[in-house]
Amino acid sequence: MGRKFFVGGNWKCNGTGEEVKKIVSTLNAGEVPSTDVVEVVVSPPFVFLPLVKNTLRPDFHVAAQNCWVKKGGAFTGEISAEMLVNLDIPWVILGHSERRLLLNESNEFVGDKVAYALSKGLKVIACVGETLEQRESGSTMEVVAAQTRAIADKVSNWANVVLAYEPVWAIGTGKVATPAQAQEVHSELRNWFQANTSPEVAATIRIIYGGSVSGANCKELAAKPDVDGFLVGGASLKVVIFFLFLPSYFPHGCWLG
Ligand SMILES: O=C[C@H](O)COP(=O)(O)O
């Protein structure tokens, strides 16, 4: 069975209650291809999770943007994996570069978080990606492999993980990776899984791309064989554009039969 295309919308720290209601209502009214071949997940800020969860169409799913590394307790300001499970939120984004860089989340900490979230039954969108400096010094693969290794050190079952390759230099900058650049890293990551986990994980894990994805570039990116979907930031707030990412699966030919 092929890898189901995955389209995630990361709303980051944006939106008022009214704006979120409008986005949800536009999403609910949109026509999408069968969710048998595309999985759609939107990730609102924590405070809007119940609102989105309770009003979003049932064929789309909801992700939190983070959760704590272990069981909840005296961790002011944090949200636990248990709370997300209690709210019936199925997905969580972990290891986003904004948290790695601004909040000093280390590879090891992200690995621990992924393992804990999975152990509680959450599905995880785990993010990896290099900075511009790292790319220019030729260490892209070394960086993303170390980030992935830190997860692999704690996780053996990858069935509920989607890996998001998000080059830091492409996030929110309008400088999207070329389809060839994305394919190169995705394919090397898949080789990494082949060498370090199992052929089954390598063949089945979805590796999605994030970083200035837009209606103008999504089709070419999606045409690459190892690009299994997107994690979209800014453009996911503009629902009309977000919908353009869904038919971008056409290049793989899957839902055309
Ligand atoms: O999680 C999403 C990524 O950070 C991409 O954000 P962007 O599409 O605004 O560049």
UniProtKB/TrEMBL annotation:
Top class in the EC scheme: isomerase
InterPro entries: Aldolase_TIM (IPR013785), TIM_sf (IPR035990), TrioseP_Isoase_bac/euk (IPR022896), Triosephosphate_isomerase (IPR000652), Triosephosphate_isomerase_AS (IPR020861)
GO MF term list: triose-phosphate isomerase activity
Entry keyword set: Cytoplasm, Gluconeogenesis, Glycolysis, Isomerase
Recorded metabolic or biological pathway in which this protein acts: Carbohydrate degradation; glycolysis; D-glyceraldehyde 3-phosphate from glycerone phosphate: step 1/1; Carbohydrate biosynthesis; gluconeogenesis
Entry superkingdom: Eukaryota
GO biological process, one term: glycolytic process
PROSITE patterns, sorted: TIM_1, TIM_2
GO CC term (a single one): cytosol
EC numbers for this chain: 5.3.1.1
Catalysed reactions, semicolon-separated: D-glyceraldehyde 3-phosphate = dihydroxyacetone phosphate
Family annotation (NCBIfam families): tim
Protein family: Belongs to the triosephosphate isomerase family.
Record protein name field: Triosephosphate isomerase, cytosolic
